[in-house]
Design goal:
- It contains 4 helices and no strands.
- The chain is mainly alpha-helical and 124 residues long.
- It has one domain.
- It is globular, with a radius of gyration of 17 Å.
- The protein starts with a helix and ends in an 8-residue tail after the last helix.
Length: 124
């Protein structure tokens, strides 16, 4: 019976990650376009993998934190540090591809820049 439970959970988690990736990929590519980053074929092929890696980082970090006898730091502090970590990775990927992204840019602004074309908001 436990193997059935494991398969069900695995199926659900795999589906959830696939859905998140499918949802996030267009947003990531819109950000790439909006800020004028240059992607080669390997970069394009890696977008999904990077997204899955970032999701896995968050999931594994939270699981490890929950497994501690006393979850420290606080949930708020962990959330802040984990969000910073994800941001640093996104920012690093952008910078190595010629784009500088303002961390205070809202999602609405990002989408407006994407619709306007790559010359708007590109700082590099």
């Amino acid at each position: 019976m436990i193997d059935v439970v494991h398969r069900l959970v695995h199926t659900y988690v795999s589906w959830a990650i696939a859905e998140l990736t499918r949802t996030l990929r267009p947003l990531v590519l819109a950000g790439v376009q909006a800020f004028g980053a240059q992607l080669d074929r390997d970069d394009e092929a890696s977008v999904d993998l990077i997204i899955v890696g970032l999701i896995a980082e968050v999931v594994a970090t939270v699981r490890t934190w929950l497994d501690r006898p006393r979850p420290v730091p606080s949930a708020a502090a962990l959330s802040s540090r984990l969000a910073d970590s994800v941001w640093y990775q996104l920012d690093g990927h952008a910078r190595t591809r010629g784009a500088v992204i303002d961390p205070s840019c809202t999602l609405e602004e990002l989408l407006q820049r994407a619709l306007a074309g790559p010359s708007v908001g590109a700082d590099a």
